[in-house]
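Progress against Task 2.4 (sequence-to-structure conversion) is shown through the following example record, which the project officer requested during the mid-term review.
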Amino acid sequence: MRELLAGVGAAALVILLYYESSLIPLIFLGALFLVLLRFTGLKAPPVNTVGRVARVKEISFNQIGGQEVAKKELLEALDFVIKPQQISHMGIRPLKGVMLVGPPGTGKTLLARAAAGYTGSSFISVAGSEFIEMYAGVGAQRVRQLFQRCRKKAQKERRNSAILFIDEIDILGGKRGRHSSHLEYDQTLNQLLVEMDGLGGGGDDLHLLVIGATNRPEALDEALLRPGRFDRIVQVDLPDLEGREQILKLHLHNKPLVEGISLEKIARETFGFSGAHLESLANEAAILALREERKTIAEKHLLEAVDKVILGEKLERKPDPEELWRIAVHESGHALVSEALKPGSVSQVTITPRGKALGYVRHRPERDYYLYTVEHLEEKIAVLLGGAVSEQLVLGSRSTGSLSDFNQAVEIAKKIIAAGLSGLGVVSVKELPGALLHRTIQQLVGAREKWVAELLSSKIELIEEVARLVLEKEKITGEILRRQISAHRQAC
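Structure tokens generated for the chain above:
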């Protein structure tokens, strides 16, 4: 760009001297300059523009909740940066790279930002997709220039350490040989490996730490993960119950809450939520309170926000009365089977349509589960089948509303087979003949369906009572459901 401006300026000076007062050549030159500027603007950005300097508010590890193990491992790696003399005295080789592995939304980027603040390092953030171009060699050149930028930025800021954060590193560091059509991916990865091998060499006073983040560790090339490159792999998993409560406190501390709200209760309702989900929950709860012109956020707003994060916004469309009755019967079946298997497990039953769901039963697990027995998995299948069986018993037919339930039941049955918990014993699901796999799934699901039919056949009146209640109120809590079940037992 500077060369273009210099050339245009020189040409303008020559024209003024030659033509003196005539402005026509200058107008022509200006138009030509705009055309050139237009075409140069359409080109790809210069290779030295890869890497975003973090111009975001600094964050500390105290502002990140639910990742105590990940923070502990990362802090230990960062001590190598801020305590170089102690590390050298012990003869420890400084770490070159840390790989953050975990599902989306668990806080990998926040951890990298906090790492820069903790060590007082210069910080540059990039995404793996920024390095891949259709032109061979461009990605490798960008990798070289990126590491040079990190060093120059640290020198300019007079810091002795820098952190380079590469998000979506699986795009840049994927297994070599996958793309046989062109080798740009492989060349880019090779250059990254070379640059990481050069870190910590003699005469380099700057400590450059590379932090990568991915939710697909299986896609990474083995050479990238070997010791001496990415020395430490830190698991950033979904938060547990205590972690979710801690994250909720962090995201709700600046929001006006009604006194006495139990965040532990909300945390129990959010099993499987990531930190990003919980942040969205807090934000949506505040929006719901504002929508109702409330000055404080109540528990009902938080619980409704849970539904919104899971399923989406309420839909304006309303099924006709016949369909609504079927939906109420269906959801009542789910709820009653769940309560029969685990009393107190239902948190809410609703027929308010959200997203693709016309109705929904939200469950409240007694604790977070990380291992499942065959009995537990069979109970999950039974709950999923409760809706279809309920429709069959009360209405005499089934509907397509059970499609998602059946798909989930089949996946759980496959998990039972893959875990060696079925009658087949320990097998490889991929090696099983399709007919045998299908028959085994049918047997597992069919046995649960028969059990559910026997359970609900004696509760047809109760199904109808609960369905009428849900139809009247559109949404009932688990406490109301359990009172209805208790009242029915006493009446019988």
